[in-house]
Amino acid sequence: xxxxxxxxxxxxxxxxxxxxxxxxxxxxxxxxxxxxxxxxxxxxxxxxxxxxxxxxxxxxxxxxxxxxxxxxxxxxxxxxxxxxxxxxxxxxxxxxxxxxxxxxxxxxxxxxxxxxxxxxxxxxxxxxxxxxxxxxxxxxxxxxxxxxxxxxxxxxxxxxxxxxxxxxxxxxxxxxxxxxxxxxxxxxxxxxxxxxxxxxxxxxxxxxxxxxxxxxxxxxxxxxxxxxxxxxxxxxxxxxxxxxxxxxxxxxxxxxxxxxxxxxxxxxxxxxxxxxxxxxxxxxxxxxxxxxxxxxxxxxxxxx
Length: 304
What we know:
Order of helices and strands: EEEEHEEEHHEHEHEHEHEEE
CATH architecture of the largest domain: 3-Layer(aba) Sandwich
Distance between the termini: 35 Å
Shape: elongated
CATH class of the largest domain: Alpha Beta
Helix content: 25-40%
Largest sheet: 7 strands, mixed
Radius of gyration: 21 Å
């Protein structure tokens, strides 16, 4: 094995406290004979590996994964599917690396440096043989088992908007409070990652406001969509869940990235119908899901 072994040490148990958090990506692009994967050469260790790096303080792992890919390879990538997390010891400390598959959408001019001095693209099987560590080969194998992703949606629940009982006007007019606006601002980097071409929101004011900061950053209008609304008196929750699931499927069918804001009484039911299974899809206010689709099939919802 190349290097001194400190880059990838022995495996650790899942319940051991993590001291180092990192994230990275299996970055792919179409090649002349099929999919190609990006690998980096690190002169410090003399190895070939998937691009990754440590999280900054307070940074979301998905944001870190895309940032590190860009910093190490000069490739701009859009995240798609969460891959298995790798856990091992690095210089005696427990480390966990979160991985996502990512589609390359652009590249700058790579300049060799002390951290990475070479970037190369390999066919999937060749990449699995070329990497220096079994952990990376296992992540590549998980990527190879995925169906082709045709669209990625970001689905979020509206941010905090106080308590329903303290608002005297119509509930659809209830606005975000100070905590909610902070959550909406924190969502901007995540929304931006999928490079959405459209922003859709349920009609409630708090849903629209949740996307306002992202809309300003991306210079996109917010489209109001009643299919994303929670039930009104006399309406069945099942009806709203089916409508939301159908809308998400239609958006994915268009093959373009979209960010969507809906409500807590809608999201779990919609995801149950899209996945075909009963699971805990409860979504915190200001939280959300990365939804990769293969055609009209949801591949694997990733809780953010």
